[in-house]
Amino acid sequence: MSLWVKICGNTSLEDAQLAVDSGADALGFVFAASPRRVNAEQVAAITAQLPASVEKIGVFVDTPFDEIVSIVRTCGLTGVQIHSALATDGPARLRAEFGPGLRILRVVHFGPGAMQYAEAYLADPNVDGLLVDSRTATAVGGTGIAFDWAHAAETLFQNPNGGKVLVAAGGLSPDNVAEAIATLRPWGVDVVSGVEAAPGRKDAGKVRAFIANARSAG
Ligand SMILES: O=C(O)c1ccccc1NCC(=O)[C@H](O)[C@H](O)COP(=O)(O)O
């Protein structure tokens, strides 16, 4: 199985197409407070132009359940990435709505308490895997900050995960993605700040280099 690579924070068809042409497996769209925030109408116009083979993942922070369902339908999303509290039965209800075809990722911010969340999420049969990220006092994603990979490699990334996927995120870039992969041995990697020219706008060279370096290392 080759490494899964997600390029997040897409705000235009041009940037989404760049990621697809550079070999991304998945594109992320942020439906949350962020300089990369997009709405359902914008994303539906983008996803309609993308190949079916590319995963389209919605990123949600404290979004009401019914709104997530509506956005998934409107935009033809193939996955959700939940950065915040969702009722415990949220993943089961999403599964009931969309079936096994919807990839359901829960986010764990590596740091104190992360293992407890990770274990709880991994025990949920309707959660497909974890995206392990960094956070700050004010931001739950898109921070551009790496977590302690050595510590995570010995703890969270060692955890028996019952076939569920572990995606590494947080402060990755073309320059450090190979080292992150060598240290963490993740199933996938995800990036936003490290491939941008400005928040919400991709740097084509960085997108290409990130995916090429991740593929070489993975
Ligand atoms: O990207 C954002 O602005 C964002 C805001 C709020 C929640 C999530 C967000 N991004 C989600 C992602 O999947 C990012 O790729 C991930 O957090 C890594 O970001 P970075 O450290 O900037 O590569």
Please explain how this structure is put together.
The protein has 8 helices and 10 strands. With 218 residues, it is an alpha/beta fold. It has a single domain (4-208), classed as Aldolase class I (TIM Barrel, Alpha-Beta Barrel), CATH 3.20.20. The strands form 2 sheets. An 8-stranded parallel β-barrel has the order 1-2-3-4-5-6-7-8, surrounded by 7 helices. The protein has a two-stranded antiparallel ribbon with strand order 9-10. The longest helix has 14 residues, at 204-217. The chain is globular and about 40 Å long. The mean pLDDT is 95. Ligand LARABZUK is lined by residues 8-9, 28, 30, 32, 34, 36, 59, 61, 81, 83, 133, 140-144, 169-172, 190-194.
The CATH topology comes to: TIM Barrel
* N/C terminus separation: 10 Å
Number of helices: 8
CATH top level? Alpha Beta
* CATH architectural arrangement: Alpha-Beta Barrel
Taking pLDDT < 50 over at least 5 consecutive residues as the criterion, the unreliable ranges are: none
- What fraction, in percent, of the residue positions are helical? 25-40%
User: Averaged pLDDT, please?
Assistant: 95
Order of helices and strands: EHEHEHEHEHEHEHEEEH
The profile of the biggest β sheet is:
8 strands, parallel, barrel
* Class inferred from helices and paired strands: alpha/beta
Q: CATH-wise, what's the superfamily?
A: Aldolase class I
Small molecules bound in the structure, each named once: the ligand O=C(O)c1ccccc1NCC(=O)[C@H](O)[C@H](O)COP(=O)(O)O
Number of strands: 10
Rg value = 16 Å
Which strands sit side by side, in order, in the main sheet? 1-2-3-4-5-6-7-8
Strand content: 15-25%
Shape: globular
Counted up, domains total 1
Protein name: N-(5'-phosphoribosyl)anthranilate isomerase
EC number: 5.3.1.24
Pfam families: PRAI (PF00697)
Domain N-(5'phosphoribosyl) anthranilate isomerase (PRAI): 5-212
